[in-house]
Design a protein that fits this description.
Layout (H helix, E strand, L loop, with lengths): L1 E8 L4 H20 L4 E9 L10 H11 L5 E4 L2 H4 L3 H13 L3 E4 L4 E2 L5 H33 L11 E4 L2 E4 L1 H15 L4 H10 L12 H9 L7 E3 L2 E5 L4 E4 L7 E3 L9 H21 L16 E6 L2 E6 H4 L9 E3 H13 L1
Parallel strand pairs: 1-2, 1-3, 3-4
Antiparallel strand pairs: 4-5, 6-7, 8-11, 9-10, 12-13, 13-14
Helix pairs in contact: 4-5
Length: about 350
Amino acid sequence: LKVGAYCRVSTDTKDQLNSYQTQIAYYTQLIAENPNWKLADIYADAGITGTSIEKRDEFKRMLADCRDGKIKRVLVKSVSRFARNTLELLETTRELRELGVVVVFEEQGIDTSQMLGEMQLTMFALAAQEESTSISKNMRWSYQKRMEAGTYATNYAPYGYRLVEGKLLPDPAEAMIVKRIFGLYLCGHGLRDIVHLLNKEGIPARNGSIWKISSVSYILSSEKYVGDVLTQKKYTVDPLTHNRARNRGQQPMIYATGVHEPIISREDFLAAQHIAETRRQVKSRTGHLFTGRILCAECDYHFRQVKAGEKSYWICAGAANKISPHPSCRLPEDAIILAALNMMAK
């Protein structure tokens, strides 16, 4: 009998990784000791949530092998290791049963080949899903309290900072670039000019990528560079799907000052916000309806309007100015209007 085993831990902490290694070793030995079993493979996801199949590459590989007939029996420690989403759990086990694959959950003593297997499985799956939802609520409550106390910084360090033991500390090399970006902006340079200058000088953005308008715009508008933190700009809509959305009043936002060491003075930051707001107002009064609203999918530059005879077209400013490497293309304004009307109708 071709037997596979699935293991999973949800975080990459030391204790969880020890459990992960223990599960792999246990199933490898268990299958090897049974003379009627042949090891198909051990499938193991580390540091991955069980609320969605989408991000679990090893789980998807196991399902593919089941469909190819490489596995006839799957061993799992518990229902919660297999899935914490009731719908996905039942859909998966039903599909495997139709393929002639039996799933055994050792902790609960459930065998999907038995008549009562699915009924028992549904009860345990609901419990696992509720536990996951409860954990998510507890974590949100913990974050909320830390936000209110002003002790929560972020889970991700923006450009110019490094996250050390939950605290944002300036990165000397990147902090100099942040200061330069603010200096150029306050001297009258636009976002495109700053991006062009940084890329021309070969200054890498985070992870060695090229600079884009959106990354420079974020730096110029983020309160983190003056040592403050605005929490919950986005929030998790559903703990099972992990879908996130921009917070437009659905959750409370908390603004804390002096949370970490600033890179930019408050005077310079406020001056940059004033310049940005002034430019937005000027653009809204003088610009075309589509100005600043059509973004190039290749290079993150905005499209600008050009006219040929009596017809109006829109082209990527980055490609047109030879800043971006991709070829230039023209979009007829009539086609853009039609697309916009179709989207609004939908």
